[in-house]
Amino acid sequence: MREVAIEGACPLCGLPSLVLRSLPLEIPYFGDALQTTVLCESCSFRHADLILTTERAPVRYELRLESEADLDARVVRSSSGTIRVPELGVAVEPGLRAEAFVSNAEGVLRRVRDIAGFGFRAAETPAARRKAQAAIAKIEAMIDGHRPFTLIVEDPTGNSAILHDRAIKTILTERQARRLKRAMPEFRVAD
């Protein structure tokens, strides 16, 4: 693992205490990659990413999950990836602190459930709480394998995927790729 100081201030606390850690990896199905983590030594700021060293075309993967066994489908999401679950009306789009991860479909649903749980706690009206609670119940049924759903992963950098034999891969047009959000914070490495 390599570690270097980064020139510039932390976006969270403003102090000049950022460090970049990087580790080269070999990822099955994807090849060579670089796992990077930017950490602030003064606060809790952390930004992780997985950068594939091979340039790829913008891509969309779609998988219909119909059984509990399907929840084991491997999901790779780069920091530029968007995850959609149409049955929930959910789109998890990249933001400033978007992180790459490798999980499975169940893990993706658990992340979505955690976000819905936050919405439930933050709801200001009984109607909003009921809506969030209904969404959480749907997600729990999906996690338990009792409710079929569609998982979509789109990535303008081509670095995300659903690894399953029934996943449908589509190459996106430039126009489709431009409509997707990107979150690529820029850091300069100090000499």
CATH architecture: Sandwich
Number of distinct helices: 3
Radius of gyration: 18 Å
Largest sheet: 5 strands, antiparallel
Name its key features:
single chain; 191 residues; alpha+beta; Jelly Rolls; five-stranded antiparallel β-sheet; 13 strands; 37% strand; globular; disordered C terminus
Reconstruct the topology from this structure.
Layout: E1 2-7, E2 18-27, E3 31-40, E4 46-52, E5 59-65, E6 74-77, E7 82-85, E8 90-92, E9 101-104, H1 105-122, H2 126-143, E10 149-155, E11 161-163, E12 168-171, H3 174-178, E13 188-189
Antiparallel strand pairs: 1-2, 1-13, 2-3, 3-4, 5-10, 5-12, 6-9, 6-11, 7-8, 7-10
Helix pairs in contact: 1-2
Explain what this protein looks like in three dimensions.
α1 runs antiparallel to α2 (126-143). This protein is 21% helix and 37% strand. The longest helix has 18 residues, at 105-122. The protein has helices spanning 105-122, 126-143, 174-178; strands spanning 2-7, 18-27, 31-40, 46-52, 59-65, 74-77, 82-85, 90-92, 101-104, 149-155, 161-163, 168-171, 188-189. The chain has a five-stranded antiparallel β-sheet, with no helix packed on it. Strands 8-7-10-5-12 form a five-stranded antiparallel β-sheet, with no helix packed on it. The chain has a single domain (2-189), classed as ZPR1, A/B domain (Jelly Rolls, Sandwich), CATH 2.60.120. It is α+β, with helices and mostly antiparallel strands. It is built from three helices and 13 strands; from the N terminus they run βββββββββααβββαβ.
